[in-house]
Amino acid sequence: MEAMPDLTQLSKRGYLKEPIPKDIDLPKEILRLKKEKNAVILAHYYQSKEIQELADYLGDSLYLAKAAQDISADVIVFAGVHFMAETAKIVNPTKKVLLPDLKAGCSLAHSCPPTDFAAFKAKHPGALVVTYINCSADIKALSDIVCTSSNAVAVIDSIPKDQPIIFAPDKNLGRYLIKETGRDLILWDGACVVHEAFSFEKIVALAKAHPDAKFIAHPESESQVLDIAHYIGSTSGLLNFIQKEAATTFIVATEAGILHEMQKKAPHKTFIPAPVEDDTCACSECAFMKLNTLEKLYLCMKHELPEINLSKELIAQAAEPINRMLAIT
Ligand code: 13P
Ligand code: SF4
């Protein structure tokens, strides 16, 4: 008989735990379960390479949100973080959406509690609320329009010039948007722990040691880092850039998981992860993203748990700003 998952442990840990036979071929089993359950796996570029290799859809936040909307399979398994799985549930609510580890959060989403944000919003009554997709469903429900790093400039540009705008939760992306669009945004004070860990001084030194290298960065990075970048873009933007550019060496300031796809797309090129302030940590890896493992993915598909559940009301409210974004891009 199939082992029953311990739901008490699931709520404490955020993931299922049971002994997995040592001789089991996890990738093979995951692919078998995918067929058996009529499931699809969506993975973000920041997942481990083993998980990326099993994905039916691999991409950035915008691509994955769009893909989730069109999925006809019964089960969506989201190898990413909580806000991404929530977004999949919001855009395709009749599907069962699974996340291998419910504790796979995001420092940006955590920086923006709904009660505090509602109070902030109340202080700026005439302002339109644009939120980065890296936030909870509750924050999306308080927003007018959502954006990702792929379409943030287009979203801000779509708003009349005289309209005051609140931008949350990423102050670094917000500052970048102020520069790019010439708009005066009211910023929420949130940041990504991974992108704030890069060391400006060490990047400058590394660039000097590799004078032919192009330095590329995700807009969640701090302003002084972005100021010296040859290219700034979302994960998919960075991937396109390294393929189009003639340069053969790139210093990459974003989560290190993307290097796997970069190396696959351009095997003859060299990718150097941007150095971080603290040499003793693996700070260019997102600890939240890396909570998902092959073992957790396997157990999650086997037991169809943990599942993302949201109330109908919250889905309806959070869907509106996401659909506005999807209509623009
Ligand atoms: P994109 O893949 O949309 O650029 O987002 C990066 C990110 O930090 C996701 O958490
Ligand atoms: Fe959140 Fe940063 Fe991790 Fe992306 S890399 S999920 S923004 S903590």
Structure description:
By secondary structure, this protein is an alpha/beta fold. The protein folds into three domains: 7-105 and 289-309, Rossmann fold (3-Layer(aba) Sandwich); 108-192, Rossmann fold; 200-273, NadA-like (Rossmann fold, 3-Layer(aba) Sandwich), CATH 3.40.50.10800. 42% of the residues lie in helices and 14% in strands. It is built from 16 helices and twelve strands. It has helices at 7-13, 26-36, 49-54, 61-69, 82-91, 107-110, 114-122, 137-141, 152-157, 171-181, 200-209, 223-227, 235-244, 258-265, 294-303, 312-328; strands spanning 39-44, 57-59, 75-79, 96-98, 128-132, 145-147, 165-168, 186-187, 214-217, 231-232, 249-253, 270-273. Strands 2-1-3-4 form a four-stranded parallel β-sheet, sandwiched between helices. Strands 6-5-7-8 form a four-stranded parallel β-sheet. The chain has a four-stranded parallel β-sheet with strand order 10-9-11-12, sandwiched between helices. Strand 11, helix 14 (258-265) and strand 12 (270-273) form a beta-alpha-beta unit. It is globular, with a radius of gyration of 20 Å. The chain starts with 6 loop residues before the first helix and ends with a helix. 43% of the residues are buried. The mean pLDDT is 97. Bound molecules: 1,3-dihydroxyacetonephosphate (13P) and iron/sulfur cluster. 1,3-dihydroxyacetonephosphate (13P) binds next to helix 4.
